[in-house]
Amino acid sequence: MSALGQRMSELVRACFTGVWIKSYEPDDAIVELAQLCRSENWSLMTWDVAQGLKPAADTTTTLESADPLAAIKSLTTLASDDTPTILVLRSYHRFIGSGEVVAEVAKAVMQGKLQRKFVVILSPVVQLPPELERLFVVVDHEPPTREELRELLAGIATDGDEMPKGNLLESVLDAAVGLTRYEAENAFSLSLVRHGAVQPDAIWELKTQALKKSGLLNLCRSESDFDSLGGLSALKSFTKRALLRAGNAATIAKPRGVLLLSPPGCGKSEFCKSLGKEVGRPVLTLDVGSLMGSLVGQSEERTREALRIIDSMAPCVVMIDEIEKAFAGASGGSGDSGVTSRMFGALLTWLNDHTSDVFVVCTANDVSRLPPEFSRAERFDGVFFVDLPSRDQKNAIWSIYRSRFGISTDEILPADDQWTGAEIRSCCRLSALLDIPLNQAALNVVPVAVTSAESVQRLREWAAGRCLDAEVGGIYAAKPLAKSSQNGAAVRRRVSRGGPSVN
């Protein structure tokens, strides 16, 4: 018996006569309910606005009109013996705004207790008016499990050469997790047409489109792994070891995530994208701004929906970039009637309680704007401070970007005492773009450690003794900012005179 069938069996036996099933696959949900009713010898009726009221197994006979009010009234005319009768109303949320319909639904649910007649509303959204909130229980129709996807795949890839095997099969199932049955069937079929076999690429393509349609999350598929990211040795080792051990079935403990603090441009976002490639997991980016809605309660609902999608996409990596800006009003005083605080509270609860195999990477540039409870134990596996790169790290970063942008290794490096990885990349890109030497391109780069020296030093001092060192491991020890180099002074002089020259 399916999970939905098991849940409905319990509710019917307990005489919960009002049930709201949230499902994006109404046909599959009705099939599962029909299987339950056949096994229990219960009566099942379905209604929708196109075909009216009819027995679930009958696709032609219509007993009533498509009037939504008549549909709910008809429940009292159905068989009245002790056999449970279930009336499934498809997409009924579009009609439940009427006062007369709400009154009839409430009446049917209350009388159903005596007559063993059950009102089931099947809809992709939950929109209960206040009069019905205490009368209905909400049930989620979950996406197909890995085993169900495996069975669906076996029904489509009937040829031996079409069916993936071993690690490739697991990669295909990883890609398909979170899709509906209809979406998964389309993805498998597309892969067969395109490649002659089921491969993950076509599935990821459709999965990316599905996430875009939700408007809540984006899927990032980076082609770069840890080899393309200089430095951060301790952070790389920690996260890779945790995630690779999470794939071991014998491992009971599951990783939760990391919080990364640093000045801007030190590689936090690039690390998260390359982490997914390194451990073979998709990277989802959550843009908190996209969760905001114009209607009362919409932002909170969109937050819960995004977290539900994230759980269904497991195993995955989730990146929430610059989280202190996303939830700047969480401490109050934002003038949004507490919406940001409630959204932040939902995220905190999920970080603490979720059991799905989701690894969360949050980044922040200003720790003072984060509430202290955010970084407590068991919400993250570690809080790392990503400092300005050391000399060895900079050499590695220069090597990566000189190779990427086709810059000769014979060129002399500019003074880079206070540069971040982003500034090294910018220098190499400008050198290739403008066809000028690195030293000349460096005149167009103003380090953030110069423009925001006070805030960078303040962040370093706060992290000392509180965070782990992303490069060498252990507790981070603060280092004073190096004094401005000759190059930095030249940069400031040129900027004050109207900008550097690139001729």
| Largest sheet data | 7 strands, mixed
CATH domain fold name of the largest domain: Rossmann fold
Mean of residue pLDDT?
82
Supply the helix-strand structural class. alpha/beta
Shape: elongated
Quaternary state reads: single chain
Quickly list its features.
7-stranded mixed β-sheet; Rossmann fold; 6-stranded mixed β-sheet; 13% strand; 503 residues; 44% helix
Brief write-up:
The protein is α/β, with parallel strands linked by helices and 503 residues long. The protein contains 19 helices and 13 strands.
What features would you describe in this structure?
The protein is of the alpha/beta class and 503 residues long. It has 19 helices and 13 strands. The protein has helices at residues 3-13, 26-40, 68-73, 99-115, 146-156, 166-176, 181-195, 200-214, 233-246, 268-279, 298-312, 323-326, 339-353, 391-404, 421-434, 438-441, 448-451, 453-463, 486-496, and strands at 18-22, 43-48, 52-55, 85-90, 117-123, 137-140, 217-220, 257-261, 283-286, 316-320, 358-364, 382-385, 468-469.
What order do the helices and strands come in, and which of them pair?
Layout (H helix, E strand, L loop, with lengths): L2 H11 L4 E5 L3 H15 L2 E6 L3 E4 L12 H6 L11 E6 L8 H17 L1 E7 L13 E4 L5 H11 L9 H11 L4 H15 L4 H15 L2 E4 L12 H14 L10 E5 L6 H12 L3 E4 L11 H15 L3 E5 L2 H4 L12 H15 L4 E7 L17 E4 L5 H14 L16 H14 L3 H4 L6 H4 L1 H11 L4 E2 L16 H11 L7
Parallel strand pairs: 1-5, 1-6, 2-4, 4-5, 8-11, 8-12, 9-10, 10-11, 12-13
Antiparallel strand pairs: 2-3, 7-9
Helix pairs in contact: 1-2, 5-7, 6-8, 7-8, 9-10, 11-13, 14-15
